[in-house]
Amino acid sequence: MKVHAVSALIVLIAGIWTGLDRIEWMLVIVLIGGMLALELVNSALERTVDLVTRERHPLAKQAKDMAAGAVLVFAVTSAIIGLLIFLPKWF
């Protein structure tokens, strides 16, 4: 979560420096909010699984891995959209 929060701050500063238009700001804010929300859901799922069982179970591992995978997919998607927004303005 800390990494995502720091990344969000860097993106916000870059957005101000770059001079994003209204639609670009909306996209950036939705992506940042979605990333932080998904990270919270992932953390909640991991804690719930830990609460239900302390023993190692293949299904518990799969649930945690799938939630972490969802965070990774959204992070990569957000990065690609970020590049599509920022790179044309920088180069």
Task: Outline the secondary-structure elements.
Elements: H1 2-18, H2 22-52, H3 58-90
What brief labels describe this structure?
91 residues, mainly alpha, 0% strand
Structure description:
With 91 residues, this protein is an all-alpha fold. The chain is 89% helix and 0% strand. The protein contains three helices and no strands. The chain has helices at residues 2-18, 22-52, 58-90. Helix 1 (2-18) runs antiparallel to helix 2 (22-52) and helix 2 packs antiparallel against helix 3 (58-90). It is elongated, with a radius of gyration of 16 Å. 10% of the residues are buried. The model has no long low-confidence stretch (mean pLDDT 95).
Give the C-alpha Rg: 16 Å
- Overall pLDDT metric: 95
Strand portion: under 5%
Please, how many helices? 3
**Strand-and-helix sequence, N→C?**
HHH
User: What oligomeric arrangement do these chains adopt?
Assistant: single chain
Shape: elongated
Major sheet summary line: none
Category from helices, strands and their pairing: mainly alpha
End-to-end CA span: 31 Å
How many DSSP E strands?
Answer: 0
Helix content: over 70%
Concise overview:
By secondary structure, the protein is mostly helical.
